[in-house]
UniProtKB/TrEMBL annotation, chain A:
Pfam families the UniProt entry points to: TPP_enzyme_C
Organism: Kineococcus xinjiangensis
CDD domains, A to Z: TPP_OGFOR
Lineage top rank: taxon: Bacteria
GO terms for biological process, alphabetical: cellular respiration
The keyword Oxidoreductase is assigned to this record: yes
The entry's keywords: Oxidoreductase
Residues in Thiamine pyrophosphate enzyme TPP-binding domain copies: 77-223
InterPro entries (alphabetical): 2-oxoacid:Fd_oxidoreductase, THDP-binding, TPP_enzyme_TPP-bd
Name of the featured protein: 2-oxoglutarate ferredoxin oxidoreductase subunit beta
GO molecular function: magnesium ion binding; oxidoreductase activity, acting on the aldehyde or oxo group of donors, iron-sulfur protein as acceptor; thiamine pyrophosphate binding
Automatic annotation (TrEMBL), chain B:
Region (Disordered) location: 620-648
Coiled-coil intervals: none
Domain Pyruvate flavodoxin/ferredoxin oxidoreductase pyrimidine binding span(s) in chain numbering: 257-477
Keywords: Oxidoreductase
Tagged with keyword Oxidoreductase: yes
Name this polypeptide is given: 2-oxoglutarate ferredoxin oxidoreductase subunit alpha
InterPro entries noted in UniProt: 2-oxoacid/accept_OxRdtase_asu, PFOR_II, Pyruvate:ferred/Flavod_OxRd, Pyrv/ketoisovalerate_OxRed_cat, Pyrv_Fd/Flavodoxin_OxRdtase_N, Pyrv_flavodox_OxRed_cen, THDP-binding, Transketo_C/PFOR_II
Ranges for domain Pyruvate:ferredoxin oxidoreductase core: 521-585
GO molecular-function terms, A-Z: magnesium ion binding; oxidoreductase activity, acting on the aldehyde or oxo group of donors
CDD domains attached to this UniProt entry: TPP_PYR_PFOR_IOR-alpha_like (cd07034)
Amino acid sequence: MTSIPLQIPTYRGSTEGLRDVPHLDEGVALKKKDFTSASEVRWCPGCGDYAILAAVQGFLPELGIRRENIVCISGIGCASRFPYYLESYGMHSIHGRAPTIATGLATSRPDLSVWIVTGDGDSLSIGGNHLIHALRRNVNLTILLFNNRIYGLTKGQYSPTSEIGKVTKSTPAGSVDAPFDPVSLALGAEATFVARTTDSDRKQLTSVLRAAAEHRGAALVEIFQNCPIFNDGAFDVLKDREQAEARIVRLVDGEVIRSGDRVAVRAAGGGVEMVPEAELGGREPLVHDVAATDPSQAFALARLSEPGMGSVPMGVFRSVARPTYDDLAREQVAAAQEKAGGPATDADLEALLAGNDTWSVA
Amino acid sequence: MSVKQVQRVDRVVIRFAGDSGDGMQLTGDRFTAETAALGNDLATLPNFPAEIRAPAGTVLGVSSFQLHFADHDVMTPGDHPDVLVAMNPAALRSNLGDVRRGGTLIVDSDEFTKRNLARVGYDANPLEDGSLEAYQLHALPLTSRTVEALAEFGLTRKDAERSKNMYALGLVSWLYNRPTEGTERFLRTKFGKRPQILEANLAAFRAGYNYGETVEGFAVTYEIAPAPAPTGTYRNVTGNTATAYGLVAAAHRAGLPLVLGSYPITPASDILHALSGMKRFGVTTIQAEDEIAGIGAALGASYGGALGVTTTSGPGLALKAETIGLAVMLELPLVIIDVQRGGPSTGLPTKTEQADLLQAMYGRNGEAPLPVVAPRSPADCFDAAVEACRIALKYRTPVMLLSDGYLANGSEPWLLPAVSSLPDLTVEFTTQPNATAEDGTPVFRPYLRDPETLARPWAVPGTPGLEHRIGGLEKADGSGEISYDPDNHEKMVLLRQAKVDGVDVPDVEVDDPGAATGERADVLVLGWGSTYGPIAAAARAVRAGGQRVATAHLRHVNPFPANLGQVLRSYRRVVVPEMNLGQLRMLLRAQYLVDVIGYNRVRGLPFTSSELAEVISAHLGGPSDEPTDQTLRDLSADTTDDLTGAGR
């Protein structure tokens, strides 16, 4: 097999996600209400989705891009109603397939900022295949994964992120499925941007969304989201100020990774563990590096999250730059056209159809 | 050099058969190119195992390529070969049953070893036991002659033997007076970077040609005059290549980029391969992670204003069903190409069938109609692909193009079209509001339809002021807002159906030569898709025998041409041959209440014209004969034949 070197370096840092998207004219600014559609929002009262919608509507004006160049594509599930409420272009597609549609759209339209809104069932169960391939291809997409660890729209069955033993309508004796950790999965799928945030921390949510939108490539943001009807309180330990202080591991680029009085150190088995700073005993605390080429430390941090939520890293796990699928695909087309001297004419097409071996009948 | 007699014949069917690794497809391709260059009309039928390299020397591993060429227009690759080139006992065993009695056998006698004979169940060597007396047998040591001819090149025996297909090609090229320059040029291009291999292949090819000149065994060589054909420039083209060209031409005429989302599957993959090399024409190919992602990417591209296309076959179409349903709901242009193969399930990946028609029509949840277009010959795949794109763009709908394995890999001469003669497919995106709200402000209503075509506006993302949401949920007529209203749902179902029913489809033409002189036929043979060639050839044979028969062929399977009901009712009997168990027949009966009669076979092979001629003749009896569908015959006899590979 021949392989053509495409000169694809892995390099650090990428903030060019919106490079080709038309920006608003100087002095023009949009407001939150510009992103609020006329559709009545129909999530259950108290749903975490409201907070995320408000955060997105509130922060989109900060990007300074034209509203009509934002497209939000969703699959099926409670979260996937999101596009209806966002005043922009949007498509509420079919279960699990939003990444496929978004891939086709982003590849053919570099001038669009393409967002996917999905849930844990939509993206990790029926759509798991498409999610991992969108991530490994590094299509220029921003993926918001609302994780409530339950199926809401179908009224309360366990999901691929539900903890093992979960008692639900379809698992009266407790589920026997081991769950996925979305961050581990994304890192394993060679994602270039992976973050985790929560519906209850508007400030962190907004900063992570901004970084994700500006990332050139596939950005996956897991958002812990409470379902007050079928899985209420799933993330309560992270919302109680005192408990959260002791459990949330804040990931800040360039700073020591810490949670309350604990810091992260390299564990004996090669992973990461959190130990009280006072008991470091000469061990070196780990400093977070979002742009590390090697994803091992990011993965080790992702493994801290266990169902009991004793240590839950939040923030940006990884943000590295790698050429995107859509850029490379467009470059190949552009290169072929440039080499041929511009857009195809009728004569060019006729030459194509004729091939190399013709004969004439007079 | 002895003086040979040259005999003119009007048609020849030749089949090259050998082991999968013997290069029979290449040999057939080259002979086809030589034949096309001479101006003969032709049709080809490659036939190969699904396995890339089935066990060598077995019947399962036999790969063949059949070519029918003539001095008149050719409708099919031919029923019974006049010449069989068999490179080993397995190839002889599995193909002999098809060869015309009195036909010519050219056999590599080197391969007829005890071991090889035993492997395919020959007790005695058929080259020696007189069992081939009914044929003109040329048992030639092709392998050892090839090795001798290449002695000076310092190749291993194994490498030298690999050129034996070129030796055979040279011999057959001599026999039929084919020009050799094209093949020599081809070899130079193919092996230009490997001079030793190039020289060996050239030497083998020439040695084979010269062997024909010098050997005493062949009494005559044959000449076939060029076929009369409309003036113009021709090339030989396969169905898959013509399909790819049709897509590119349609996108060019529409002024849109073409985006193919696809997942490799036999026998559709060659369309993906062809399009991936056409980037210069603004073509993007996305090889997706699965069939679903392939069509998803195509639909996403269509949403963004490109011409989205997906290609698949058999089981792949099943996987795409849900996204096709979404496309029906979104009312966006999308072209789905199904290169049908034997099913169900994995079925017969490399063999042909027409059994996806009902899946194309109805294989989705809910009332989800879409137009269905079917090409009738390899070159016609070009026009059919353009037509599918035209309907998709004009009516904003997914369109199914039903090709099949026979069309995909078969080839025929193609009169090259002038691009300016192709339909103008220019599309106008919607850029302005199309309605006024109650308070007088201009608004965009994404499901406000064109009153004539019922197509909805195509307003692509990036268009200021027309921001809107679409999706799989039922929409309110006009506004496109989510609606669960019962009356609205019924209206939308009816509108989507009416849009497809209203697609502009030309009347079906009937070929009934006697009709002009008041001597109409009693029987109409109606087909769709790749059965065109065998039906036309069969009708020609029946008419040559002094009997009357009418034929008609459907390019549009959904909606049907407006005159179809009247056509069906104007014949005493309508016979519908299909490579399925009667799917078009079912549609015709249901829609027109006409008791059409089926002739149905599912052997993974195209009909032969002689079997259809027999079927037609049987129906030409008086009005008293009992019309019955012919589907299942004596299963025990057929099955035994098929298992031994001895043909019918």
